[in-house]
Design brief:
about 240 residues, 5-stranded antiparallel sheet, 9 strands, about 15% helix
Length: about 240
């Protein structure tokens, strides 16, 4: 998957600097105090107007993934009848560069064998599947997650049914703290490089690309400690962007 960490690190440093400056200025939470004379509004100053604009992003990032799953069909067009184990095994077979003996996630193949009857279920990397309409067509879609061994990453996948075809419309790998479904948005929470902060990445359905697309990347202060003491935040509405 495309790397997001370099861009996120820059965002983190900028956010920490801004919060530090705010904390210094707002340390007193006592009674009302005069703020002094109101400063005159000044329009933004454009820096380096002769700077040559960049023609491409610094870090490539795939905003949409769409791929028909081979060897897996949707019985009666009902995605709930699709076996999640078959879906993951189809991906392992289709991407030997990632899951082969020399692939980054090679240990996932052996672990997936434990997902079949008779296997050790506690060693199965497949997480509980969820069915919810994320595309807005009134029919359930399939959201899957599975651990990517030997790394600490988790694969997040979303599939929709087009007739009897199973189509993957989201594929993302990341080190995750959690995943949420809010309306028709999928939100991933990931650890940040700074203690007490985390990233929140939002994916939403794009009718034009017929895929779930990267919509928003936030850097949030969630409390003290490695990942903070998270406080609940309002869920996004179905049409949130």
């Amino acid at each position: 998957m495309p790397a997001r960490r370099p861009a996120r690190t820059a965002l983190a440093l900028a956010a920490v600097a801004l919060l530090s400056a705010t904390a210094t200025a707002c340390g007193d939470t006592g009674g009302l105090r005069g703020a002094g004379p109101t400063t005159t509004a000044v329009s933004p100053t454009r820096l380096w107007p002769d700077l040559r604009p960049a023609s491409s992003p610094a870090y490539p990032y795939a905003v949409a993934t769409r791929e028909t799953v081979k060897d897996v069909t949707v019985p009666g067009g009902d995605i709930r009848k699709v076996d999640p184990v078959d879906v993951v095994e189809a991906e392992l077979k289709a991407h030997p560069g990632d899951y082969g003996p020399k692939g980054t996630y090679h240990a996932t193949v052996d672990r997936m064998r434990q997902c079949r009857p008779g296997g050790e279920r506690d060693r199965c990397p497949l997480l509980k599947p969820y069915h919810r309409d994320l595309t807005g067509d009134g029919r359930a879609d399939l959201t899957l997650g599975f651990r990517l061994y030997p790394t600490n990453q988790t694969a997040v996948r979303v599939y929709t049914a087009e007739g009897h075809r199973l189509v993957q419309v989201l594929a993302d790998n990341d080190a995750l703290l959690g995943v949420e479904l809010a309306g028709r948005a999928l939100i991933e929470r990931s650890p940040a490089d700074t203690s007490g902060y985390e990233y929140r990445t939002t994916w939403v359905w794009d009718p034009g690309q017929r895929a779930m697309v990267f919509s928003r990347d936030e850097y949030l202060h969630v409390g003290d400690g490695p990942h903070g003491r998270r406080t609940p935040s309002p869920s996004a509405s179905p049409g949130a962007r």
